[in-house]
Design goal:
The chain is of the alpha/beta class. The chain is built from 5 helices and 9 strands; from the N terminus they run E-E-H-H-E-H-E-E-E-E-H-E-H-E. Helix 2 crosses helix 3. Bound molecules: adenosine monophosphate (AMP).
Length: 171
Amino acid sequence: MDLYSFIRDVPDFPKPGIVFKDITPLLGDPKAFAHAIDEMAQMIEAHDVQRIVGIESRGFLFGAPIAVKLGLGFTPVRKPRKLPWRTRSVDYDLEYGTDTLEIHEDGVQHGERVAILDDLLATGGTAKAATVLIQGLGATIAGCFFAVELGFLPGRERLKDHFVDSLIHYG
Ligand code: AMP
């Protein structure tokens, strides 16, 4: 199945010069979405994973169904002040300014092998921040997995200490 045809390019969103990879056509097609989840679950299954961590918010859309399919628990990594229990935070650099991600202190266990899920790998800053949170709680990164990867940006270089795989690759 050609999943590329379910990714829509939206030029100049959310700001001029960015081509936004819109995954909503993929989510909206039951066969394409199921196929993407099946393929990503297979990709992850080979890595002896014990937990899925999804990054807010589009990482939840892929991470949660993959966790159910693989019979694993799901842990959300969220923007600040969204998680109700005790949290760990990490600040990371954006093109302009900084942002913060949080995880519950009991979101991953010491020694657990965790797969990080997000919809898209661009510069890798977001996923890298998630690896710092997870490793800070003593868990191990089994890999970082994405539905879409922008290969012309330095995401893989940023995540070079970890296994990285993606389903739909540009550039
Ligand atoms: P980065 O930290 O640069 O790897 O950016 C990854 C995050 O930003 C992901 O959560 C994506 O949802 C979002 N993102 C960055 N660039 C794009 C893009 N061109 N199209 C769609 N989403 C993007």
